[in-house]
Amino acid sequence: MQKDRKLLKSLENMPSPYKLERLAIPYRFWLYLLALIPMFIMVILMFIDTEGISLSEASFTFANFTVLAEQSVLVAFYNSFKFSFLTTIICLFFGYIIAYSLAKSKLKHKGGILLLLILPMWTNILLRIEALSNIMQPHNIITNMLGITGFDLLGTDTAIVVGLVFTYLPFVILPIYNTLEKIDPSLEEAALDLGMTETKKFWKVVFPLSTKGMVSGAIMVFLPCFSGFAVPRILGAGNVLLIGNIIEQNFSNMNYNIGSVLAVVVLVLILGSILLINKFDKEGDTLL
Question: Is 50 helix (H, G, I), strand (E, B) or coil?
């Protein structure tokens, strides 16, 4: 009875859903201002022909969609998919190994180690990529200190893949680790009691139960790789064209109509991927 009274008292002290909803008002305001309104403007710009942002002589047209059939755009989409897919596979492989080793270790301060792994996400991405581009040059701070000549990787496909993996690997480690941590240990014990080896236990029990984290991590890596332009622009040295670079060039040259078409196409892919995450992880377990 005493436990029931404590439970009822704790439930009474919990904030009501209405109060919690009020806390989300500032977030909703910035969401509408910085995301939904620009998206609505891009959808309008897709179907009109304008000079810059002037709407005085705007006219309705479908001609902007012809950019999707241009050779440079198709090559950019192919490159974006190729690098994103390759980066996602590499990140899943190494990210799973790291997350599994940390989750199954007997270390007391797993949270601190996980914090160190995701700490690079808190720093400016441009600073990290610029530092990495310096290391990829034949003469850099490390080679100068050691008195040797390094590898000239800047401007190659390898440089872009290394930069993308270096940037987005933490996005895979975190959801996979959270999924592994929430697996009931009794399930693994039961598998061993039924005569499974450690290898069979992993493939029959642990791995299937961690697929939600893998799907979430894969999408969290694939999307920014597909739509980003900073990494290929700096490490690719202009030799490799991705769809994010074309979008950035169009908006920089005030060609907002073409840039909006390409940006909305990428946005549709992003929204579809978010729906996929919700399908595999309805409770959001992998991100908590």
Answer: strand
Tell me the pLDDT tens digit for each residue of 209-237.
888 889 888 988 988 888 888 888 888 87
pTM: 0.79
Helix (H, G, I), strand (E, B) or coil at 51: strand
Q: In angstroms, rounded to a whole number, what is the distance separating the alpha carbons of residues 154 and 149? A: 14
The answer to whether 161 touches 83, Cβ cutoff 8 Å, is yes
26 belongs to a structural domain: no
Classify residue 176: in a domain, yes or no: yes
Distance CA 123, CA 130 (A): 12
Q: 3-class SS at 138?
A: coil
**How far is the CA of 9 from the CAs of 4, 13, 15, in angstroms?**
9, 6, 12
- What is the extent of the structural domain holding 208? 70-287
Beta bridge partner(s), residue 51: 54
What is the pLDDT, as a whole number, of residue 155?
A: 79
Q: How does residue 70 score in pLDDT terms, banded at 50, 70 and 90?
A: confident
Domain membership of residue 260 (yes or no) is yes
CATH number assigned to the domain comprising residue 98: 1.10.3720.10
